[in-house]
Write a structure and sequence with these properties.
Shape: flat
CATH superfamily of the domain at 56-134 and 172-223: L,D-transpeptidase catalytic domain-like
Order of helices and strands: HHEHEEEEEEEEEEEHE
CATH topology of the domain at 56-134 and 172-223: L,D-transpeptidase catalytic domain-like
Largest sheet: 6 strands, mixed
Strand content: 25-35%
Number of helices: 4
Number of strands: 13
Distance between the termini: 98 Å
Helix content: 10-25%
CATH class of the domain at 56-134 and 172-223: Mainly Beta
Structural class: alpha+beta
Length: 224
């Protein structure tokens, strides 16, 4: 009876394939471990601002811009800015405004402009009135005879004032008028979205500076 000789050489290619499949299998990824010695931890991307610190380009390239509440100031340029060389640019898309000295940015700050029902007009305007303590004659609150607020966000043209009550216009401190229709820049709440009745609300922390640096006739450009 012939004996059959078993040759294991033909198993070597199969064994090699099995080893490769084990090493390249789709297991879990993560830090190297005994269970998965070839795994690596994915590297997190780190933002590197390419511009010189302290410049407006560096400020505007930040990852939180334009939604940030932070304010950019060029102190040296700001000190030289006045009613003879200033202008203001309001960018509706960014919800930010820029106090300019000629063509240079002296200050970049957040604003809140008109909502969808009361959009802020675009175009070229000039400051035609400045009033430190101003109240709206259109929007505000309705008080009863005892001085208690009975309606907020009232419109003096449409809402009824109870007998003995009165209308109290919303504060618009450091008012800078742009149109005869009641659009202007003034102090107000500045959420990071359009929320006003058409005016350009400006933060308390910068509105006095803007008010001091502009004058009657100062150009204001409102852009989309």
């Amino acid at each position: 009876m012939n004996k059959r000789i078993f040759n294991c050489n033909h198993l070597l290619p199969l064994l090699a394939l099995a080893i490769v499949a084990t090493l390249t299998s789709c297991g879990s990824t993560g830090s190297p471990s005994k269970a998965n010695p070839l795994a690596t931890t994915p590297l997190k991307a780190v933002f590197v601002n390419p511009y010189t610190p302290g410049t407006h380009k560096h400020f505007a390239a930040g990852p939180r811009y334009p939604q940030t509440y932070l304010i950019y100031k060029d102190i040296g340029l700001l000190s030289k800015t006045n009613a003879t060389n200033s202008k203001v640019i309001v960018n509706l898309s960014l919800q930010r405004a820029f106090l300019m000295n000629g063509d240079l940015i002296a200050m970049d700050y957040p604003v809140s402009t008109g909502n969808s029902k009361h959009p802020t007009p675009t175009g070229e305007f000039n400051i035609s009135e400045k009033v430190v303590n101003k109240r709206s004659n259109l929007y505000g609150e309705i008080l009863d005879v005892d001085g208690k607020v009975v309606q907020t966000d009232a419109d003096s043209r449409d809402d009824v004032i109870p007998e003995g009550g009165r209308f109290l216009g919303a504060s618009m401190a450091h008012w800078m008028r742009l149109t005869n229709g009641g659009i202007g820049m003034h102090r107000g709440k500045v959420p990071r979205y359009p929320a006003s009745h058409g005016c350009i609300r400006t933060p308390r922390s910068v509105v006095t500076t803007i008010y001091e640096k502009v004058g009657m006739g100062t150009p204001v450009s409102i852009q989309r």
